[in-house]
Amino acid sequence: MKTQLNCLGKACPQPVIETKAKLSEVLPGTLLEVSVDGDTQVQNLLRLAESLGYEASSAAENGHAVVRIKKAENTAATAPATQNMAVPLPHAEKICVLVSSDAYGRGNDELGHILIKSFFFALTQQDEKVSHLLFINSGVKLSSEDSPVLEDLKKLESGGAEIISCGTCLDFYQLKEKLAIGSIGNMYDIQAIQLQADKLLKI
Amino acid sequence: MDPLSLKSIVVFSTTTDAMAAEAAVREEAFPARLIPVPREIRASCGMALMTEPDREEELLSLLEEKGVPTEGTWQVHLKL
């Protein structure tokens, strides 16, 4: 069985919301074809499918992108979102760091910029391994080109941290083309990771 | 276990000095970066400049030239 969903002209996170709703309606085994405009929407839909444990693929067709998601036959076999989102880690504990600004703490911003560099360097020196680094609001300046902490982020990523930057925020700061590390996520990804974390550091 | 490497650490007596030092190295594109003072060193304001041990002399001269007072230098092993 095949069903189509037209999300052309719809910005993130609308395609994800509509696709999620559609997937819950259709029968197991159904192939859902979602038409979207750009790569960000494609990535978000693939991530959604992965989190649901469904097979998915994407292709460019007639000037736009089509994401095909097959709803699993046996819903009981569907893996919970957490298992698919996390990178394989040497330990079970999920330590998530939410970075909501490019300056650490309130007060003087110049000091805040120094402290944020200090924060990320110190993070590379700790024995505890971070599993997720989430960047929102002006925090996305730290995961983009010209970030003063890119070196530290690369080290944390190679140590097993998954780095996700808020797509809305990258767009707002016009940094979407300048993302230097990790992937783009939407509110669902960013929120789910925090909800599933054992420890959450919010800075 | 992460590999360790030997680094030179220049410490300062005030945060303002550390920030001035960072501005100086950035201006000269000198390969040094600001880090929190490693726990092994019990001194100074909390911020330090880190560079390669063979660039330490050069870094100290640069800071002297720019009029940034330093409090001392250390060599420590860091995970890098």
Concise overview:
The complex is a heterodimer of chains A (203) and B (80). With 203 residues, chain A is α/β, with parallel strands linked by helices.
Blueprint (SSEs and pairs):
The complex is a heterodimer of chains A (203) and B (80).
Chain A: E1 2-6, H1 14-25, E2 31-36, H2 39-52, E3 55-61, E4 64-70, H3 81-85, E5 95-99, H4 109-125, E6 132-135, H5 150-158, E7 162-166, H6 167-172, E8 183-185, H7 187-196, E9 199-202
Parallel strand pairs in A: 1-2, 5-6, 5-9, 6-7, 7-8
Antiparallel strand pairs in A: 2-4, 3-4
Helix pairs in contact in A: 1-2, 4-5
Chain B: E1 4-11, H1 15-27, E2 33-36, E3 47-51, H2 56-65, E4 72-79
Give a written overview of the molecule.
The complex is a heterodimer of chains A (203) and B (80). With 203 residues, chain A is an alpha/beta fold. The model of chain A is unreliable at 76-91 (pLDDT under 50). Chain A has a 5-stranded parallel sheet with strand order 8-7-6-5-9. A 4-stranded mixed sheet of chain A has the order 1-2-4-3, covered by helices on one side. Chain A contains 7 helices and 9 strands; from the N terminus they run E-H-E-H-E-E-H-E-H-E-H-E-H-E-H-E. Chain B is α+β, with helices and mostly antiparallel strands and 80 residues long. Chain B has 2 helices and 4 strands, in the order E-H-E-E-H-E. Chain B has helices spanning 15-27, 56-65, and strands at 4-11, 33-36, 47-51, 72-79.
